[in-house]
Amino acid sequence: MSLDTSLGVIELTEAICNIESVSGNEKALADAIEAALRSAAHLEVIRDGDAVVAKTNLGRDRRVVIAGHIDTVPVADNLPVSRRVIDGAEVLWGRGTVDMKAGVAVQLKLAVETAEPNVDVTWVFYDHEEVEASLDGLGRIARNRPDLLGASFAVLCEPSSAQVEGGCNGTMRVEVRTRGVKAHSARPWMGENAVHKAGQILTLLSQNQPDEVEVDGLVYRESLNAVLISGGIATNVIPDETVITVNYRFAPSKSEAEAFEYLKNFFAGFEVELKDAAAGARPGLDLPEAAAFVAATGSTAKPKYGWTDVARFSALGIPAVNFGPGDPNKAHADDENVPLEQITSAYESLRKWLNA
Amino acid sequence: MSLDTSLGVIELTEAICNIESVSGNEKALADAIEAALRSAAHLEVIRDGDAVVAKTNLGRDRRVVIAGHIDTVPVADNLPVSRRVIDGAEVLWGRGTVDMKAGVAVQLKLAVETAEPNVDVTWVFYDHEEVEASLDGLGRIARNRPDLLGASFAVLCEPSSAQVEGGCNGTMRVEVRTRGVKAHSARPWMGENAVHKAGQILTLLSQNQPDEVEVDGLVYRESLNAVLISGGIATNVIPDETVITVNYRFAPSKSEAEAFEYLKNFFAGFEVELKDAAAGARPGLDLPEAAAFVAATGSTAKPKYGWTDVARFSALGIPAVNFGPGDPNKAHADDENVPLEQITSAYESLRKWLNA
């Protein structure tokens, strides 16, 4: 399979979507992207597993990273993609159109076309973003070849309706536990019902009013939700344990330690066990590179709520923003679709910025 | 394997316990019981699957059924049985000692020894009591050979500390559901958390004070407990459903329909789905046969909380009581054990009653 980057960016998006690349199955798409990049004489191309990195080496005084993942969540009977009209707007409909192959198409077309950008650019196309964090291709490059990510600014082409979404909330998962004493359910007074006790936890959660926290001029909405609950072992036994998995999305001004402290206080009196966490990323829009990007793309900057790989750049000390076509609320949806206009708009904005 | 009914009732209990008969594996024990019963000339023996029925046919004006199940719950490293001293009392320790092979030993020894009881007796030894109700051997006999269960009174040798426990509570399981709307947990305000809503249900349950209901002179303690809870599909998705399985143990004066009506009112505003139910059994201690049995055995009658097969007799219009060695709280326990004194006492009481 090969990709023709002389196609329009919408047609290129269609072609990229139709090379199925559910996490773990990125090879064919990575091969096609690598071949397209190698066709451009101005790029130095490095392959790492199923990630492909392409660099200009023009000796510019600044370098930016423009990155996107090439994998998708599983297909839901929505490939190949099709063109449809939804609410009067022409869209490209199908898996990956939003998250995030329209962004990948914008990257790939610009990488090949832009021989003389006004900054040196490192284009990154990476694998395994949609699965457990330890497999993430960008994380692997950051560990193995941190030199490849050296830059003064980064753009992640994650869906953000072709507007700048700055930073991201952090995310933390904890298990909150109640314990009781098993007994036969015909004689429950011999035991102690751990599921009944969980009512207090759920009441706390349902009455909670999450904070809104201003960070670098953007307001981050936090949230705290039970995402899983389980308790009980049989229909005739009083349960001796309930486990509630809680997901806390916290503002990027908080550290992981502060977030965990908050949860321990919030669930005071119950066992709280930390399962995993990832700090957020400050939007950094007060930094000159980021402010210039917002201005060049004519964006109204908004906060990003979902955790994205901008946090990896943030951890490397590189300011980063999300900027890509597609409504993030449609990511992973069975009816995932992107307005054609957003693909063109994102492409034009980035092109102007690189050629200004 | 064979069983020697000339042994003392304690030794016979040991022998019966050591023929493992976890539900579905009753054949060896049923064979041994059948052989022992066939050795007694005064008994007519009928085999039905792994159930064995033995009848005297003396032309007495009354007939009683004395019944017990021969299966156990799974072994928990507690076979073969052993003799121990617990809290100063000699006990037989191991799987089945309480539920209910000491009772089976009492039945078997008396069946073979009592050639001329003062009533005709139908001895029933049946399979599959510890598993789903549809497999229950007593239920199978009631369906296939109801004539075998014809009687004016029944004794079920379920553990009741060698005292009469009358009737039993009914039991009903319902699923109570909350529903919400899925969303990515980074943007929970796009959805509606069904687990948080379940807090109201658990609060209702934990604040509930169950009724105590007097039926035929005995006070039945009801109970209402969540036995299972589950909700959520992934750690980054707002749950759109929670299912709470609730077990209601209701007094034998209530019908299944009344019990379900009670639950629908109790959980008003939530979906309540009936999963299964079994009516209880009134103690019937005001009936002459039952009163005579209480008197003959010198018992203090108490209510039975757990559902037992006395309800099957009750449904056939036959008054029935539980009377057997062992503390019902030790049934199914890993440290299941029966005081030797209760085995002897139950044996002596029944022997006196049959020979009065």
**Gross morphology of chain A:** elongated
Strand tally of chain A is: 17
Number of helices of chain A: 9
Please summarize the sheet with the most strands of chain A: 8 strands, mixed
What is the radius of gyration of chain A? 23 Å
Relative helix content of chain A? 25-40%
Interface with most residues: A-B, 51 and 51 residues
What does this 3D model show about the protein?
Chain A is an alpha+beta fold. Chain A is built from 9 helices and 17 strands. Chain A has helices at residues 9-17, 27-38, 97-113, 137-144, 194-207, 256-266, 288-296, 310-315, 340-355, and strands at residues 44-48, 51-55, 63-69, 82-86, 89-93, 120-126, 153-156, 165-166, 170-179, 212-215, 218-221, 223-231, 241-250, 271-278, 302-303, 320-322, 337-339. In chain A, strands 1-2-6-3-7-16-8-15 form an 8-stranded mixed β-sheet, sandwiched between helices. The first copy, chain A, has a 4-stranded antiparallel β-sheet with strand order 12-13-9-14, with helices on one face. A 3-stranded antiparallel β-sheet of chain A has the order 4-5-17. In chain A, helix 1 (9-17) crosses helix 3 (97-113) and helix 3 packs parallel to helix 9. The longest helix of chain A is centred in the N-terminal third of the chain and has 17 residues, at 97-113. The first copy, chain A, is elongated. The first copy, chain A, starts with 8 loop residues before the first helix and ends with a helix. The mean pLDDT of chain A is 95. Chains A and B meet through helix 5, strand 12 and strand 13 of A and helix 5, strand 12 and strand 13 of B.
